[in-house]
Amino acid sequence: MSSVESTESTESTGSTGAIFIVVSMVVIIVKISVLYYFCGKRIFPSVSPEPQFMTLTMDKFLTDMEREKPIRFTDQQLRIATDNYSNLLGSGGFGAVYKGIFSNGTIVAVKVLLYGSSDKRIEEQFKAEVSTIGRTHHFNLVRLYGFCFERNLRALIYEYMVNGSLDRYLFHQNKTLGFEKLHEIAVGTARGIAYLHEECQQRIIHYDIKPGNILLDRNFNPKVADFGLAKLCNRENTHITMSGGRGTPGYAAPELWMSFPITHKCDVYSFGILLFEIIGRRRNFDVNLPESQEWFPILVWKKVDTGQLEELTIACGIDEKDKEITERMVKVALFCVQYRPESRPIMSVVVKMLEGSLEIPDPVNPFQHLMDGIFTAHPVPTSQSYTNTSTSSGSCVMVTDSSIVCTTPIMRRNEIELASSNG
Predict the structure, then answer these.
(1) Which of the residues 208, 217, 226, 362 is marked catalytic?
(2) 111 marked as binding residue
(3) Across 39-48, 196-205, 362-371, which has the greatest mean pLDDT?
(4) Element (H, E) at 224
(5) Tell me: the pLDDT tens digits for 40-56?
(6) What angle, rounded to 10 degrees, do the helices at 323-336 and 296-305 form?
(7) What is the CATH number of domain 71-159?
């Protein structure tokens, strides 16, 4: 082999080696870069997030903010949403309710309050609703989206309840709701009231529990609504003194019409009256029936007292399969409407009773004062100190020096435990 051929061979080998080295270095650099990129992202996350990530975060933040407190709307925004207030849902002494749709598709109920320069009552109602339902969050409470407070407009914007109020399904001839669903509505309503009384930072007393204020969503889940009479109550101040009656006659507790301090037990009474109307699927006092008719709750008590509850369930059109639920609801209703507020259970106990997770003792006659024709003013305690006194049928709870309330062991144990844990 000539010297020229040897030189060409050497140069060719050198070129191949150089190319191999360059390619190897490039591969190594690429691997190091990729490794650094992925490891570096984990160790040193980017300070500036991608625009899409930032948008999602902001959307979540704004959604969370909307859930925390109601939004303030303008009259112009509401006029657009309601098509200039053209779709009237209903009206009353407070004003009118209109259906509205926001640009994102959310359907709302806009409650426009009647307002005049001298009408302090409407302003009080506005403040009551915003200050109470505006700070609550519960599946069984109607949601307040926001409000409008302008020179000539006071409005409240609520979530829209497609199935309207409970009274539409109780008092009309076309009773489409089965008793099992009515029981679910009763339990859900009780949960909502229990939340107001026992789980809010400040106890909220509704004062106007009735079928017309229980709204039903698409799946007939109940939502407690209309907080125009509601009042906040610090837990250490368990009693409220007010002048004048409050609530709806027929549903309001007796103490609301007397000059005595008021407790959250007035809502328990109203719920009991509501339960009677759910059981009978009729008004407790029907103006279309003869004048000699009995008040339905008293009729129920007489049937219970004489062992004729089954006869009552048949008269109310309740099926045999719902007999056990009916008996439970009847007992709960009778406990809730006890004349003395201290004898009524708290709402979390009511929920357990309705659900069947708590044994319900036989109630005492809550209408003895009516049957005897005696209307006694019951003392309402300013503080509660519980003292056990043994009896053959249960126990007595010392509420104050001037009043002793007899209860069964089950009622006493759960009432006191829950009251102390939530007070």
Answers:
(1) 208
(2) yes
(3) 196-205
(4) strand 222-224
(5) 444 334 444 444 444 55
(6) 110
(7) 3.30.200.20
